Amino acid sequence: MNEIQVQELKHKAENCNCEECVLKHLIFNYVPEEESDILCSVKRERSFKKGEVIVRQNEPIVDFFYIKSGIVKLSKVTESKRNHIITIAKPHDYISLLTVFHGKNYAYSMTAIEYTEICVFPLNLIVDLAMRHGNFGIGLLKKSSKTADDIIDHFIQNNSRNLRGRIAMTMLDFSLNIYKSHIFELPVSRKEIAELIGMTTENVIRILSEFRKEKIIKINGKEIEIIDFDRLKMISDHG
Amino acid sequence: MNEIQVQELKHKAENCNCEECVLKHLIFNYVPEEESDILCSVKRERSFKKGEVIVRQNEPIVDFFYIKSGIVKLSKVTESKRNHIITIAKPHDYISLLTVFHGKNYAYSMTAIEYTEICVFPLNLIVDLAMRHGNFGIGLLKKSSKTADDIIDHFIQNNSRNLRGRIAMTMLDFSLNIYKSHIFELPVSRKEIAELIGMTTENVIRILSEFRKEKIIKINGKEIEIIDFDRLKMISDHG
DNA sequence: CGCGGCTTTGATGTTCATCAAGTAAAGTGG
DNA sequence: CCACTTTACTTGATGAACATCAAAGCCGCG
Known about the structure:
Two copies of one chain form a homodimer. Chain A is an alpha+beta fold. Chain A folds into two domains: 3-157, Jelly Rolls; 161-238, Winged helix-like DNA-binding domain superfamily/Winged helix DNA-binding domain (Arc Repressor Mutant, subunit A, Orthogonal Bundle). Chain A has nine helices and ten strands. Chain A has helices at residues 3-14, 22-30, 33-42, 123-132, 134-159, 163-178, 190-197, 201-213, 229-238; strands spanning 44-48, 53-55, 63-69, 72-77, 83-89, 109-112, 116-122, 183-185, 217-220, 223-226. In chain A, the strands form three sheets. In chain A, strands 2-6-4-5 form a four-stranded antiparallel β-sheet. In chain A, strands 1-7-3 form a three-stranded antiparallel β-sheet. A three-stranded antiparallel β-sheet of chain A has the order 8-10-9. In chain A, a hairpin with a 5-residue loop joins β4 (72-77) and β5. In chain A, α1 crosses α3 (33-42), α4 (123-132) packs across α5 (134-159) and α6 packs across α9 (229-238). The longest helix of chain A has 26 residues, at 134-159. At the A-B interface, α4 and α5 of A face α4 and α5 of B. Chain A binds a DNA duplex through residues 162-163, 189-191, 199-203, 205-206, 209, 221.
C-alpha cells in the first residue's frame, strides 16, 4: 500500500462513525491506531429490511459481520429439512464468531428480523490483524467463547422446561434483554418462536392465548404487553 | 528466568512424551521451538480413575486442560438442580476451550468416565503465548469455534429426534466416533445417557430393551454389541 | 448383611404433536 | 383496485409419545 492510499484510508477513517462500535473498542485496546483506522476504512456498511437474508447457510465464508443496529436471527436447516433458530442476536453481539474461524461455509443463515445495519469486514483482514496482534486474537477468543456458552446455556434452559415455561422464558427474554420494556412488538412470527424453542406453532399460539386469558400478558397481534411480571417469572422458573 | 533454569526446562522438555499431542502440534506450527519446549516442560500430567472429578463447576479457572487419553464428560447443574451432560469428550478434544477464556469460574464440571490422563497448563501461560504469537491464538480460536459448533449441532440433532432416534444416535456415536467398534463397553450409566440426551432413565432402559428384543443390539450389562447397524442408522435418521 | 444406587418392568396419566377447519392478513397479478 | 393465492393465526378434538409413580431384583461397598 503506498502513502497516498494510506492517506486516503485515514481520511475515510476519520469520517467513520464507529464510536459506539464494540468491535472498534476491542480493536482499539489492542491494536495501534493506524491499523484500526485502516480496518475501519475498509469496512462496508450494509442495511437489510425486515426479512432480508444477510448470509445463507452453506455459502462460502468470506466476510466477518458485526451488527451495528437491528435484530438478527441465526438459523439452520437440518437434513430432515426442519428449520431451527439457534439464537436471536442484538447489536454488538458477535454472532458471526460462531463458524467463521474453522469452517469453509457458513453453518447458519443470518436473517434480519428488524431493519438492521451490518458492518462487513473481509475475514482475512480480521484474521491477519489477529495474527499480528495477539491481544486482539484473545479478545475474539473471549467473545467467541462467551457467545457459545450463552447459546449452550439457552439450550439447556430451554430443554429443562415444559412448554409454558419456554414461552414464559422467551417473553421475558424479549422484554428484559432485547427491548428492555414491558411492552414490545414481537419481531418474529409464532412459527419462528416455535422454531426457536422447539415446539409446534399451534402450541405457541395456544399457550400465548392461555397467558392472555390468565391475564399475564396482553396480546394485540404482534404487540405483547407483560402485565403480571411475577407470575410470568414464576412460570418460567417453573412450573 | 536465568540460563540454568532454561537449560533445565529444555532438558525436561526432551523427556516430554508429547509427540502425539495435537496441542503441541498446534503450538509447534506457530511458535518458536524454545517456547513450546518451555510450555511442554511446565506441563503437569494428572491421571483420574473412572468417576473422579477433574474440575468442578463454579471453581475458579486457573488451568487449561487437555485430554491425553481417556474419556471425559462435561456436565452442568442448573438452578433447578437437574444435571445435564453437555458432551462426552475424547482424547485431543479441546473441551476446556469452552469457558476458560471469558469466565472467572468453570461453567461445567469435568469428570473422567474412564481412566483418563490429562495435561494441565497454567491458563495464563497459554494466554501469554497466544498474546505473543497470533498464529497460536488463531489456532485456539479455530478449535474453540469447532468445539462449540459441534455441541450446538448435537443439541439440534438431538432435539429433532424422538426418544428411539436419540438412543439410536447415541449408540452410533459411541460405536463410530468414540470406540470405533461395533462392540463396546458403555462408559456411562443409563442415568447419564438420560442426562445427555434429555429423557428419563426409565425410557433409556425401556428403549434399549426394545432394541434388544428387535434384535438390533445385544446387551450384556454395560456391554453393547450392534447387530443390525442399518436398522439402527435408519431409526437414528428417523423413524 | 444391610443399605443405597443402578437397573428393570409395568401401570397410569399428562403433556404435547398432529390433524382438521376456519378466520384473518398480506402479498400478487390482471 | 379487486379477485386470487398464499401465508399467518387461531381453536378444538384426538391419539401418541413420554414422564411419573410404584415395586422389585441386582450389585457393590462399608
